[in-house]
């Protein structure tokens, strides 16, 4: 009889980011090549639960998904009640790098979605030596806000429900109802001001635009994925970004939106399998180097 206990194991690791000590929660499953998975704005690692539970994936890869500080089971730093949470590119990169060091990960693959995909591209440009490849999901060079982020942190509105209402339009109509609502539930649970602080990073940082051409895919391959129903990072945005990164590859995913790994894991699976193959394949030009 197959065990009803899932193989996912959760743990904590302590890191220092800037001058703040952070206790970061992470989940992992599998063995083999390490893959660090980054969640979207306003959510947490539960978005990756289907990948971590996939026996075919975990036979050859060790998946590690962590909650960014202020998200999920990663508490805010001490004294958070006196500060405004606004995520920056520098803090985000430092957090990812600090986590990988503390977890003892040597040149893992990095897979991130939405803001996680954006920071994956930043790391591909600025810290490629720390990773062996990048899977940037629902990621583009720059995405200006088409909404007022201040609505997500007001005393007269429920920020979590406001966030869920906004992102509901970014889920493809083909998504199963159960997966649609579990995806939205993560946003409903978001801490006060956290989604707003994430979106501040995602919609105000245009520093990546001038860095794309510096990404060397001969050493660290980059594979970009975008759902055809994504209205935040549209297929056109993804295509523009991929065209600016010489040697990158691109997949436009049918019947999927902005949260493919959680909104429709079954439809996402084949695309993610292909992505892992794309970024682990050794180019012939490197074998001859």
Strand and helix layout:
Layout: E1 9-17, E2 20-30, E3 33-38, H1 49-52, H2 55-58, E4 61-66, H3 89-102, E5 109-113, H4 115-126, E6 133-137, H5 159-168, H6 177-188, H7 194-204, E7 222-227, H8 235-244, E8 249-253, H9 260-263, H10 265-280, H11 284-287
Parallel strand pairs: 3-4, 3-5, 5-6, 6-7, 7-8
Antiparallel strand pairs: 1-2, 2-4
Helix pairs in contact: 5-6
Helix content: 25-40%
Which fold name is given in CATH as the topology? Rossmann fold
CATH homologous superfamily grouping? Alpha/Beta hydrolase fold, catalytic domain
Q: How many β-strand stretches? A: 8
Largest sheet: 8 strands, mixed
SSE order, one letter for each helix or strand: EEEHHEHEHEHHHEHEHHH
- Per CATH, the architecture is 3-Layer(aba) Sandwich
Structural class: alpha/beta
Q: What is the CATH domain class? A: Alpha Beta
Q: How big a fraction of the residues is strand?
A: 15-25%
Q: In DSSP terms, counting alpha (H) and pi (I) runs of 4 or more, how many helices?
A: 11
Q: Which spans of ≥5 residues are poorly predicted at pLDDT below 50?
A: 284-289
Shape: globular
How far is the N terminus from the C terminus?
A: 50 Å
| Strands in their spatial order, largest beta sheet | 1-2-4-3-5-6-7-8
The mean pLDDT is 93
The gyration radius over C-alpha positions equals 18 Å
Domain module tally: 1
């Amino acid at each position: 009889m197959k065990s009803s206990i899932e193989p996912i194991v959760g743990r904590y690791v302590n890191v220092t980011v800037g001058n703040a000590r952070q206790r970061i929660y992470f989940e992992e499953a599998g063995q083999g090549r390490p893959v660090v998975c980054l969640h979207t704005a306003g959510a947490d690692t539960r978005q990756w639960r289907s990948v971590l539970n996939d026996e075919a994936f975990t036979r050859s890869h060790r998946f590690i998904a962590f909650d960014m500080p202020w998200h999920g089971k990663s508490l805010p730093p001490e004294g958070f009640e006196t500060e405004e949470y606004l995520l920056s590119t520098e803090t985000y990169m430092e957090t990812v790098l600090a986590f990988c060091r503390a977890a003892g990960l040597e040149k893992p693959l990095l897979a991130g979605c939405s803001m996680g995909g954006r920071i994956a591209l930043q790391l591909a440009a600025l810290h490629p030596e720390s990773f062996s490849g990048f899977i940037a999901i629902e990621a583009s060079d720059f995405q200006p806000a088409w909404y007022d982020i201040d609505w997500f942190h007001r005393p007269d509105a429920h920020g979590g429900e406001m966030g869920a209402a906004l992102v509901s339009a970014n889920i493809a109509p083909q998504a199963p109802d159960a997966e649609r609502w579990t995806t939205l539930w993560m946003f409903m649970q978001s801490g006060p001001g956290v989604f707003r602080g994430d979106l501040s990073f995602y919609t105000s940082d245009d520093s990546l635009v001038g860095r794309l051409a510096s990404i060397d895919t001969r050493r660290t391959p980059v594979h970009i994925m975008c759902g055809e129903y994504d209205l935040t990072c549209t297929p056109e945005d993804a295509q523009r970004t991929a065209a600016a990164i010489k040697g990158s590859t691109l997949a436009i995913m049918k019947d999927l939106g902005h949260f493919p790994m959680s909104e429709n894991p079954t439809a996402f699976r084949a695309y993610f399998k292909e992505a892992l193959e794309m970024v682990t394949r050794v180019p012939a030009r490197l074998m001859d180097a």
